[in-house]
Amino acid sequence: MISKKVYETSGKIFEQVSIKTQPAMYEQLKAIKPGEIVVVSGVHDHIEKLLPTIKAPFDLIEFGDIASHNGGRVMFVNCATYSSAPKKSVETFVNEGGRLVTTDWAWSFTSHIFPDKLKFAKKTIDDVVEIECNTDIARRLIGLNYSQCHPKWWLEGSSDIYDIGQGVIPLITSEEMKEKYGKPYVAVGFTSGKGEVIHFISHLELQRTQLRSKADVGDLDDFLAKMKAVKSEDMEEAKVAELEAAYSTLNTLAYLCIPMPLLNTSMKSIMVSGGKSAMKSKGLTV
């Protein structure tokens, strides 16, 4: 299990690296005011535990409070089974420029509001898969830029593999997951009105990773060297694979929290590397 101490250590590294390499993003993160970020309490994911690590203020509300809450600017909906959703209020929130972010079983929340965008395919076992960062958005979200980096994604037992509908954009994919489960979609998104919806399989509060290579079993000093960061006395020793996973999650959360749009109508930011053409806005596959 990735401990709170590992997240805290990765948070300190994230701060150092962000100040040096992505100062504009970091300044936007620091400028977030109370009320901008809203987290809907769930059952199997706990994004509210991670946001303090990147010093992002947030309001924690219950499902029943959504319709009466102002929604803020970003709404995170934690993993849970949703048999309904306040369609009118959330649809208005997104169409007026809000960002809705859901994890795992909360695809059902999104589907109540935006039918035919996400469709259940099958369940996973407890697993860890390597992911590919073939798009600009994926590289930005993952935030691990050094060579020979092999980011991984934890799949909770009974995570919901899903298929995507018209206009849904694959953001992060996994060929390993496609080979095992038939679908490659780790994170996807779509726009509605002025806003956007982003969904992740499994959880952002990661429970574990895997040590698959010699690099994965490196220590804190190895990770600091890769990230060109400086060690402090309050950092916790951990394996590189754990620090990568925690750091990447915090970086992803930071980008989900800042005002800068991740999706856009021109699709310039999701050009696939390796000379492939830009993805079309309908029926996207990777």
SSE layout and pairing:
Layout lengths: L3 H18 L1 H8 L6 E4 L18 E3 L12 E4 L9 H9 L3 E5 L3 H7 L4 E6 L3 E4 L5 H7 L9 E4 L4 E5 L4 E5 L1 H7 L3 E8 L2 E6 L19 H8 L12 H18 L29
Parallel strand pairs: 1-2, 1-3, 3-4, 4-11
Antiparallel strand pairs: 5-8, 6-7, 9-10, 10-11
Helix pairs in contact: 1-2, 1-8
What's this entry about, in short?
The protein has a single domain (4-270), classed as Class I glutamine amidotransferase (GATase) domain (Rossmann fold, 3-Layer(aba) Sandwich). 29% of the residues lie in helices and 19% in strands.
Question: What does the model show?
Answer:
The chain is of the alpha/beta class and 286 residues long. It has a single domain, classed as 3-Layer(aba) Sandwich (Rossmann fold), CATH 3.40.50.880. Helices cover 29% and strands 19% of the residues. It contains 8 helices and 11 strands. The protein has helices spanning 4-21, 23-30, 87-95, 107-113, 136-142, 175-181, 220-227, 240-257, and strands at residues 37-40, 59-61, 74-77, 99-103, 118-123, 127-130, 152-155, 160-164, 169-173, 185-192, 195-200. The strands form 3 sheets. Strands 2-1-3-4-11-10-9 form a 7-stranded mixed sheet, covered by helices on one side. The protein has a two-stranded antiparallel sheet with strand order 5-8. The chain has a two-stranded antiparallel ribbon with strand order 6-7. Helix 1 (4-21) packs across helix 8. The protein is globular.
